[in-house]
Amino acid sequence: MNATPTACSDLPNRPHHGRRAAALGLAAFALALAGCATPTPQQYAAERPALDLKTYFNGRLVAHGMFQDRFGHVRRRFVVEMTAQWQGRDGVLDERFTYSDGATERRVWRLTDLGDGRYEGRADDVVGAAQGVAAGNALNWRYTLALPVDGRVWEVQFDDWMFLIDERTMLNRATMSKWGIRLGEVTLSFTRLDP
């Protein structure tokens, strides 16, 4: 005869201490995760100097950067030469990339100041529009980029953070993911060349 219970009703009638402990443990874990929520630009509202996109991205700029895969290995290094100009609430940021292997790339962003610290950005390889929110010295862009990889195009999501350090220097860290899986990070240091 098989002594293994075949249904819940066959189990001995015992207190459910194990289930209660598991439920409490799960609730504690959920609360811990809630404390690890992702940052928002509003958390940086008091930080100075305040980032005004129209002031910082105006004139000539240069950035030095790298892409690291999800294991932290540097896969590409690059320099970006940029020019930017604004007319009213509309701006153009022309980026020219030169990679350490000699490859080049160009991306032209069309930016719109929507007011209240909100921005929208469009470029030929951006799917839809990038949405940006600025507060204090921080700006967070979220967008999907159509990225060519080995003859195919992958749509990858970017969570892109920019932090103004001083009037000339800004640091940028962007996390790249697909299907919720982190693929890597892009790190850049921007320098304004024009006063």
TrEMBL record:
InterPro entries: DUF3833. This is Lipoprotein. It comes from Tepidimonas alkaliphilus. The lineage of its organism: Bacteria, Pseudomonadati, Pseudomonadota, Betaproteobacteria, Burkholderiales.
